[in-house]
Structures are given as C-alpha cells and as structure tokens.
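Have a close read of this protein, sequence plus structure tokens, and explain what the tokens say about the fold. Thanks in advance:
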Amino acid sequence: MLRQLRHQRGKTLEEVTDSLEWSRGRLAHMEGNKWVRPDLGNIRQLLDFYEVTDSERCEAILDLARESRVRGWWTKFKDVFGSDSLVGFESEASVISTYQPIVIPGLLQTPGYAEASARATLTRPAKEVERRVEARMARQEILTGDQPPTVWAVIDESALLRLPSTNGVADGQLRHLIDLAEDPDNGITIQVLPFSAGLHPGISGPFVILDFPDDLDAPLVYLESRTEGLFLEEEPEIAGYRLVFDHLQVTAKSQAESIQLMKKLHADL
C-alpha cells in the first residue's frame, strides 16, 4: 500500500526520503515490510506527505501496519523460507495460478516427493531436508483452512515422468494428484501440459500468479531461481503472465483428460 501511494504521487524512493530527511534505506524497508517494529509516526508522516486526507483510509493503513507486527506461522521456518517468502502472500491469496515445467507445485507435493526434490537440489544438508519437508507440509495447510484459495495448476508432462520410482514416491505423488483433481469441492484444478503441445508460451520457465480478495491488494507474479525469489507487481508484467497462463490453460489437457493421463502413468508404474 505504501508503494502504491508513492507511485500514485509519482515519487521515487530517493525523492521521498530526501524530502522527509530520512535515511535512504528506511522507506525501502517499510515498503518491503522488513521492519521489526513499525513506527506509526513515520507512517503518519508518509500519509501527510502523500496528501492522504481520507481519515478512514488513513486508519485502515495504520491498522495494516499494526497487523504487520503479528508473526505468521511461516516465521518459525525462517531458516527454510528466508525473509522474502512466497508463503506469506500465499496465505492471504484467494486465487493461486501456477505453471511448473519441471517439478510438482509445492502446494500439491507429498512428503515423499518433497523430500526427494529437496535432496535433488544438491544444496541442502541431510538435517535441513527434514526441516524443509516439515515446512512444505505446514505451507499446505492453507488448502484446508477456513478460507482456502482456489488453486489452478498447469503441470508439464515432464514433471510427472521425472517422479522418482524409489520408495513409492511416484506412486504416492500420482495418487495424491489424482485424488486432488477428482475432488469437486477442494477448489483445485490440475491440468497436464503434454509433450504433444510442442513449443508454447511457458518455455521461459515456471511462475505463480497470486490474486487477493481485497481490491486494494494488487496481484503479484512470483518467479523463483535457485537462490532467491522475485516478485513482479507492475500491471504490464502481470498482464503478460496472465496471457501466458491463459494460453497454457487452453493448450493443456482438460482436467478430465489430465486425470486419465495421470491414471495411465500410475498404472504403468
């Protein structure tokens, strides 16, 4: 919200901090919610600077700052997720749209697959693997909460064929995906993008689109690399990824066809 207000006023971080005689990093930390204890006085200064005169809106923004002090469940897994984590936004999202060309989406993974994929990265010591699996399972609790998000996952066929056959991982993961896709009440749609689709708009890599229930919360696109994640929030960027996801949905097999394909793969194990 603070970033949106600054953009609406056409101000850069430097222009605002220079005008308020703040250190250069203060506003960046505030906008990134990296503060340990938000200073409501500083926020009131910003609201005055941005000429926000609507008292209800001002109070709503101050309430957001107060609530940002409440630590989410994921903070106990900070050693796994890091400080700029996708999971905080996932827990607030109403719709999560994800495309994965190599791995099964994290929200749909079994413990066995989560462990195997963590080991496959070659960057995690054995002790940390167990911790990552625990965190991944905790992350999935949003799917059975009071207000679970709608999840739409397009998974490349290659991700299914890469499932490890050892220790029953492939069997368990395929069965789990089939069960999720066949449940009409969980709000989860799974589509498989077959090899026969050839080249397609998603060849640039995996991404997640997050939409939120409040119109004031702008949607986000999340891109993940080996070492860090990147959030995109500009409207043209969001629109571009929505267009790609729309094409992937049309190109992929329908949910019913995807279930049949997964059942065939399961039978062939």
Notes: Strands lie at 95-100, 150-156, 188-193, 207-211, 220-224, 229-232.
